[in-house]
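Tutorial handout. Part one gives the primary structure; part two gives the three-dimensional structure as tokens.
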Amino acid sequence: MLDYRFIKENLDAVKENIKNRNMTADADLVVKLYDERTALTTKLQNLQQKRNANAASMKQKLDAETRQKYIEEGKALKDEIAQAQKELEEKEVLLDEAARKIPNMANPAVPIGKVDTENLEVKKVGTPRKFDFKPKDHVQLGESLGLIDFDRGTKVSGQKFYYLKNEAVFLEQALIMYALNVLRKHNFTTFITPDIAKQEILSGIGFNPRGNESNVYCIEDEGTCLVATAEITLGGYHSGEILEKSKLPLFYCGLSHCFRREAGAAGHFSKGLYRVHQFDKVEMFVYSLPEESDKIHEQLRLIEEEIFTGLGIPFRVVDTCTGDLGAPAYRKWDLEAWMPGRADEEHPEGDWGEVTSTSNCTDYQARRLNVKFRDDDGKNKYVHMLNGTAIAVGRAMLAILENYQNADGSVTIPPALVPFCGFDKISPKQNS
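Part two.
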């Protein structure tokens, strides 16, 4: 969350930022509650000073009448302090709830816009393939090659669940190992993280665990949720801690299952593996010094580019507009891979689809999770937190199937993955 004093001192800028992000939040209410909390804090401190003065007076030699007077005054002060503490606690809850709805400030360079079509393309890598045959989408390929079974996934688990079969199982594991080895080369500490996190950790990262708009699956009566990304568990790893400055930045990556309720989102191109309720992902997460976070954000994006360049998948980089930024993000880069299966009348040869993103969340999450470092001046300050997708396996597999398909219905495996999966082509088979 943003610092309360910052909101008060930069109220107009905060309100403009909320507007640009196309979000609903009441910055005026935050300032009002902040002022009321400050007044209550001052009132409580004054009462406590009176109580201390009363207690000091009681230590003197007093006649019975004066002593009784101080006793009665002490009892009254005790009741007033209890009431003031109660009011302060209630005010702090209201202030916290209102402030958590305020999004992070956006980097001044972020393009202003409401929807993803207003994101700014900044770079293209690779050239989309020109097919001399009519390419299939990944759903058709997955079925014809016996790789993906959506129908039985729906029968057993519900809409937007699926079974991976045969070579797709090894392709998924190959993608994971490929990404982990790239990150190991960049000296990331590797994790396999829990698939469950406490609601307060999700809330700290910026996910809403409750309500109809929640994107996560909560576990009833447990106060926990299935994680939507390892960003949650890696971000919670150091919650409530003071980190050593000399050890920053900390580069972590985590492999986890990811569970999301968003799969029902409308749209022709949400079909198949692109938007599902469960998938595997390797996530990058960094705890950084504030002055280094912009540079590290670039570094994470370049690692994502390295991964997809190594796979030979054409992609473009977009600077995410204000309306498409998540609340914690200060700036976000998306990598969008070329997907021939997105062909339609407007885009007859295919279109771009998001495969990774990386966000600099500055100290927004750290304030909520209380993660600090001790600076050289002896003061504890909030770290900056960054996250980035190394591989979201379903979308990477989608891009490989569609870009590497052949006229005979087979799919060639990118050379970078062959050592991990043990084969260089997936061919049509009978009775899949």
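Part three, for discussion. The chain has a mean pLDDT of 93. The two ends are 51 Å apart (CA to CA).
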